[in-house]
Amino acid sequence: QAVVDFERLGEHAAAFQGHDVGFCCLGTTRAKAGADGFVRVDRDYVAQAADLARAGGCKHFILQSSRGANAQSRFLYLRVKGEVENLVQAVGFDHCTILRPAVLLCRRQESRPMEWIAQQFLGAVARLFPTAYSVPVEMVARAMVACALQPGEGKVKVLENGAIHELGKA
């Protein structure tokens, strides 16, 4: 494990050398980082990490994005996610897998009351409609590993929430 300073990511190029597969789940919230900080973390840091990974020999980059990602969205969150998807694809990996999970179900150390309420509601809905609105983070992780072990055909693969559930169960 290498600890890097994302404000000086270029100085840590060695940490990105010699890896066949890159996994990226980097992200923050607008509430925590402000609009500019959110863009810097969720788009700029991710794009720079992808560039460094490719330069270091990475062949397959697996990116956790978001359901609804769209570079033309009027909503900052979805627009930034769409922009970073486009930037990562443009890097030129042999394989690029983009996962677009719905609401992530997880336990956080920090307090996010509205997210907690949404997770409680969506957790209950998930019992009836398991793939519709949410996905446990453990399932996303298993799906990412499955993608790394069997990248499949094609240069770019986008997996929506239902496909993440399927791969995460396998």
- Please state the CA-atom Rg, rounded to the nearest Å: 16 Å
Percent helix, as a range, is 40-55%
Return the string of H and E elements.
Answer: EHEHEEHEHEH
- CA-CA gap between termini: 27 Å
Quickly give the structural class: alpha/beta
Overall pLDDT: 90
The CATH architecture term is 3-Layer(aba) Sandwich
CATH topology: Rossmann fold
Look at the structure and name the CATH superfamily.
NAD(P)-binding Rossmann-like Domain
Widest beta sheet: strand line-up: 1-2-3-6
Counting copies of identical and different chains, the oligomeric state is single chain
Question: How much strand content do the residues show?
Answer: 15-25%
How many β-strand stretches?
Answer: 6
Number of helices: 5
Biggest beta-sheet profile: 4 strands, parallel
Low-confidence stretches: none
- Morphology call: globular
Quick summary of this structure?
It holds the Pfam family NAD_binding_10. Helix content is 46%, strand content 15%. It is built from five helices and six strands.
